């Protein structure tokens, strides 16, 4: 028989299901942030918005993981929406 999941594991699973809707992770302790980040990666739910959410926490371990995994934020060029008539 498998042991019952811990409250922390259940909480991280629930947070992972709603990771795209979360707005702030800065109140979480670093060890929980790192665990949630790893679970997010393994679940394939790391998007640009979620990456910014994790990087906004300024957790050194997450910044190091992002650098070690060579994860880059996409650079989207901003084009003018209307041309000036001076050209």
UniProtKB/TrEMBL annotation:
Signal peptide range: 1-22
Source superkingdom: Eukaryota
Give the keywords, sorted: Signal
Name of the protein: NPH3 domain-containing protein
Organism lineage: Eukaryota, Viridiplantae, Streptophyta, Embryophyta, Tracheophyta
């Amino acid at each position: 028989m498998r042991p019952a999941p811990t409250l922390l594991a259940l909480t991280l699973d629930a947070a992972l299901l709603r990771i795209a809707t979360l707005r702030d992770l800065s109140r979480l302790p670093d060890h929980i942030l790192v665990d949630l980040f790893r679970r997010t990666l393994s679940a394939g739910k790391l998007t640009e918005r979620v990456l910014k959410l994790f990087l906004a926490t300024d957790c050194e371990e997450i910044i190091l993981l992002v650098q070690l995994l060579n994860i880059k934020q996409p650079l989207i060029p901003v084009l003018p929406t209307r041309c000036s008539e001076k050209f």
